[in-house]
Amino acid sequence: MKNLPLFIALSGLVLGLSVPAAFAEAVDSFVCEGRLRKDGVMAVKESIEVDLDSSHRSSFYRIIPAENASIKLGEVTDGRGHAVGHATTDHGGSVSVRLDKHTHGRSGYYRYQVTYEARGVCREEKGHPVMRWNVVGHDWPMKVKRAEFVFYPPSGVSIPEGGFRAYKTEEEGRVPASARALADHYLATASNLGPGESLIVEAELPPGTVAGASLLDQARWLLSDWYLLLAVPLLAMAGLWAFRAIRSQIGGGEDEQDIWEPPAGLRPVEMGTLLDQSCDVSDMSVTLVNLAVRGFYTIREIPASGYFALSERDYELKKLAPPTDDPLKDYELLYIDALFGNGLTAYLSNLQGGFRQFLPKIKKQIYRSLVREGFLVKDPEMDRTIFGTLGFLLMASGICVLFTADTSDLKGLALGLVIAGVVVAVSPRFFPLRTKKGRKAVNQIQDFADTLKTARGDEIVEKMKKDPFIFHRLLPYAIVLGVFEKWAAACEEHVPDMSPDWFQFHDGRLAEGFSARDFARDVWIATKLAGLTFTAPPPRQYSDHTVAKFGRRPEQEHDDEN
Fold first, then answer.
1. What Å distances lie between residue 459 and 475, 494, 515, CA to CA?
2. Edge-to-edge, what's the strand order for the sheet holding 70-78?
3. What is this structure's pTM?
């Protein structure tokens, strides 16, 4: 007997502990109507009348055989046509339907009607299709007093004489059952089927009358079974798109742009962050130069010869009185505090291992500044955390449902939740975070970069008449935009003398003549070394505690040149 474990388990559920009561229960009438279509699908309607005979059971089970077919359950109603609560479980060779659960049990006479589609009931044998159907099923542990199968072949199709046969399965084997042709259908009947016995029907159809399912039909069936697998991820994507579309419409009013000025008053680090929606250390290291250009401290290149030095160069920073007409943003205040602490002089090499603890806070403040000023919808890192967590919860929910799923709908829902979780988790990488104002600023930044890259000599001369400091003021922007070499070359060719006071060299090399190209490259090297220092762990010999307690390292000692 197939599905013996299922038969034993459901026998306990259906029959209960009392053997006499179990054998008193019976299905008085079981009428199964099957209408076969030309695509090989049979629409089935079962009418069941059952006497539970004071068993006080909580549920009644109908076990539908599905050895060679796929079952798609439809409606379940009572004798008056009212919907009946039910739950289905797919066991591979059969589908069990739990009907009308009652918490306190019930007994008496009940009528149920179950409808479903059975796919794959026809097989090609000897050049013609054969429909074979197990009407009652072998796994139903109840006595069936009378079973009928009413078969309707496809419209306009007649079964050859002797082609419609029925069998009753017993312990001794199969024995013929009543099977006959009526006006427009065929009828097979059997009486007194014991638990595990069934009525089996075969119908030989003329060649070519059942063409089988087309690719379109198969796609439709697949979609009807697994629609949640597609619907849930698509709903998640639509929700994310709508959320981003609404939030990204912030700002973006029309205003004039001076292509020689940073758009919207953005700092270099904010430009770099807005361009790729990521605040990198290379962006933050340019702030070291930008704050010096703006007069908050000076930078002097000095030699570094210690074993633990990251380079042969080191940099001495001397704090100045802050300009009164240039307010600092929150992340810039934190940046200066990370550089100097309570002191007035700092050395880049002394920041190794100590500055890195400030990087997450500085980065967060930069994101907050861009969000507050309307360039970004929200903090990208927070966005990734939120959507990553939400995606993980969706995937975990899907996995939990998958372990308990017993129908194709639930399995589709489970896999749909897993896919939706993946979509949600990775969505921040593909959904832009810039607002309308931010997108406009990006276009302006690109125009600004083109201006620095293609500046003509006459334009630079004219600009320097109004702003002699323009080369130095725009140099940090040129570095973050990757056009500093072209900007320096254009300025050097037409304005040779631009010696700075914010960036000096201990060897006095500027006294021999100023070269904008060489100077720009030295400043760029300083930003690269700053980036390495900001992320480097502390050397074992010189921890943060050691530097704070004992001051400068030996390799920082040098002749103090003014």
1. 16, 10, 20
2. 70-78, 109-119, 41-51, 26-36, 143-152, 186-193, 178-181
3. 0.60
Q: Which of 59, 19, 62, 442 is nearest to 248 (CA)?
A: 442
Listed in sequence order, the residues at least 6 apart from 101 whose beta carbon sits closer than 8 Å to its beta carbon are 58, 59, 85, 87
Burial of 510 (0-12, 13-18, 19+ CB in 10 A): middle
Residue in the block written with tokens 């931010």: 438
pLDDT in tens, 254-298: 566 778 888 878 999 999 999 988 889 999 999 999 999 999 999
Q: Are strands 60-65 and 41-51 parallel, antiparallel or unpaired?
A: unpaired
Cα–Cα distance, 273 to 410 (Å, whole number): 43
Strand ranges, E, within 177-270: 178-181, 186-193, 199-204
Alpha-carbon distance of 324 to 24, in angstroms, equals: 99
Q: Is 556 helix (H, G, I), strand (E, B) or coil?
A: helix
E runs forming strands in 279-421? 297-303, 313-319, 345-347
Whose tokens are 């099977």? That residue is: 179
Close Cβ partners of 212 (under 8 Å, ≥ 6 residues apart):
39, 40, 122
The secondary structure element, H or E, covering residue 109 is strand 109-119
Amino acid at the residue 530: A
Chain-centre distance for alpha carbon 306? 49
* Helices marked H in 323-377: 330-340, 359-372
Using alpha carbons, select from 336, 333, 321 the residue that is nearest to residue 368.
Answer: 333
Q: Which residue has the tokens 């919808």?
A: 377
- List, for residues 23-75, the tens digit of each pLDDT value: 457 889 999 999 998 888 899 999 999 877 655 556 778 888 877 778 888 88
CA proximity to 36, closest of 172, 153, 174: 153
CA distance 163 to 204: 5
Give the position of tokens 């001051």. Answer: 551
Distance CA 337, CA 355 (A): 10
Burial tier of 368 (Cβ tally within 10 Å: 0-12, 13-18, 19+): middle
Q: How far is the CA of 389 from the CAs of 276, 382, 394, 414, 424, in angstroms?
A: 23, 10, 9, 18, 9
Q: Which two tokens stand for residue 541?
A: 């010999």
Distance in angstroms (rounded) separating the CA atoms of residues 201 and 188:
7
Rg, Å, the chain Cα set = 41
Name the helix (H) or strand (E) containing 90: strand 86-90
- 440, 416 contact by CB (below 8 A): no
